[in-house]
Amino acid sequence: MSNAHPHPLDPLTADELATGRAVLEAQGLITETTRFPQVLPVEPDKAAVLGGSRTDRRIQFTLLDTATGESADAVVSVTAGELVSHEKCGEGQPPYLFEEYDLAEAVTKASPEWQAAMERRGLGDRVEHAFCAPLAPGHFGREDETGRVIRSLTFLREDDTDNPWSRPVEGLVAHLNLTEQRVLRVEDEGDVPVPEDSGRYGHRPARTTLKPIEITQPEGPSFQVDGSLVTWEGWQLRVGFNAREGLTLHQLTFQDRSVLYRASVPEMVVPYGDTSIGRFWISYFDAGEYLLGKNGNSLRLGCDCLGVIHYFDAFLADDHGQPVRVPNAICMHEEDYGILWKHTDLDGKAEVRRSRRLVISSISTIGNYDYGFFWYLYLDGTIECEAKATGIVFSGAGEPGSANPHASEIAPGLFAPVHQHLFCARLDFAVDGQRNSVYEVDTVGIPIGDENPYGNAFTWKATELRTEQQAKRHANPATARVWEVRSTEHTNRLGAPTAYQLVPRPSATLMAQPESTVHQRATFATNHLWVTPYAPGERFPAGERPNAHPGGAGLPAWTAADRSVSDTDVVLWHVFGPTHIPRPEDWPVMPVDYSGFMVRPYGFCDRNPALDLPSAAHGHCEH
């Protein structure tokens, strides 16, 4: 990728990050105690990008003074080499620094109160390898929990290579102030024994019954890559990556017509349904509190990705604002996906075409969980987003064989609490341009009568969602509900508006009660659908800084104005994800739990766009 004339939507480069930091240093904004909890690209004006104008390349640096706890956002133009703005951060805390995780453990272990609690439990001789997990505190308005705070739960390990999540020290919670580097208080409740079942995995003798599967493309893949620009079988898009969201997709077009201007999963919340002192407050915002992109994996061939792979590196800023390369942060490849279409005619002649999809993926590890984000492009114009949750379930301890209404026993004395993984996708639609309207489409039964004399008839009903409040919607599998984004300027050969449908995989929304603090902080997760008119500052559904924020920011604040979403540039926010009641089969490492949605053409094409596919790789099927 050329640094001289990057595309306005290209990811940040190492040179740009270094240039931006140098500008801040020249302005005297960096001291020995300055850290960089978040560094993000400032995406350029949409009209300028669509108009082909050259735009300013800008970076937003969040600066944290670890000595005082004060934070500010600074925007730097790396094109002009100058500071554009510098202002104090508002309510809430910036995401956590990597170095704060080590600090939290060191401060916890140095605490006489924590040491006394371990001694009281007879664990004083096991503190050397104890793991003190640094966990976002939520927000409960406690007087001593202002500023930069974090909580810590303790887990035991046999050594520093052991899986810590198998041996929780139940009922022991340390509350810390990171700025003051001190423990605020320690809660020590109960005397539940530490489970001793091993959580080690990955070193068991491998089965020998599986035969190899070879994936080859002797002529190479069908996609072309030019910097961040990808072209594949009628599709064109730009691939991006940033510290907060991780993988992003930009300017998706199919058959040279626009579908989406931008697509990403900018936030997710993991609320727990346990009432114990060690878990009632847990509701992780894995993007806004921890940063999905900064925790991105370097993907490996044959493990994370299989086939003929193209990798994209990413460049992010570390805690000190220095550029860091994440090799192989994004994996892209093609994979066979079975039959796309088939028909056997009356003479017994069969025509069949195989499906193929382009896979663009990234994986992030946040503490005990691993999240894979997979975007699939299909030959028929369909887009699919799939989130894959795996890793290790969060655990607590209990009496073996006892019943817990909020947690299931997954190993002797080891209990995993019920929880949710609620992802929120941000889909900036552009179906044949920027002027779109949104309709909710339901199938509808018809009572027996003149319109249904035989009782078999049903139909469908499309209702336009005209305002933000009207567009706060739930999925409904009983009516096969979809949401349709229609162009208000273009029609197909039948005279109907060209459109794309958002097809949900219905799942539970936020289970927490409206009076709870997590409900206030994660209000975005209370609906499957929100629709807003495009606004450049509306990027994150729980607001800019969900860490230690009291709530109300993001989607609930924006949609309170009840703006029109008819015949305009619309953004759809879709909530999806599993509600997890853990099972023994999830231990010690959890098989992938899949969730996601589709975006498919509906009258966007005049006929099946995959009619011209060859019947096989070499033009025939074997008999």
TrEMBL record:
Q: Where is the Copper amine oxidase N3-terminal domain?
A: 94-191
Q: Identify the keywords attached in UniProt to this record, alphabetized.
A: Copper, Manganese, Metal-binding, Oxidoreductase, TPQ
Which residues does the UniProt record annotate as the domain AGAO-like N2? 13-85
InterPro entries in UniProt = AGAO-like_N2, Cu_Am_ox_TPQ-bd, Cu_amine_oxidase, Cu_amine_oxidase_C, Cu_amine_oxidase_C_sf, Cu_amine_oxidase_N-reg, Cu_amine_oxidase_N3
Group of enzyme by EC: oxidoreductase
Signal peptide annotation: none
* Stretches assigned to the Copper amine oxidase catalytic domain: 213-611
The cofactor binding remark recorded in the entry reads: Contains 1 topaquinone per subunit.
* GO terms assigned for molecular function: copper ion binding; primary methylamine oxidase activity; quinone binding
Cofactors (names) = Cu cation; Zn(2+); Mn(2+)
Modification comment:
Topaquinone (TPQ) is generated by copper-dependent autoxidation of a specific tyrosyl residue.
Residues with PTM 2',4',5'-topaquinone: Y369
EC number per UniProt:
1.4.3.-
- GO BP terms, alphabetized: amine metabolic process
* Catalytic site positions: D286 (proton acceptor), Y369 (schiff-base intermediate with substrate)
UniProt cross-references to NCBIfam families, sorted A to Z: PRK11504.1
The text of the family note is: Belongs to the copper/topaquinone oxidase family.
How does this polypeptide assemble, per the annotation?
Homodimer.
Protein's UniProt name: Amine oxidase
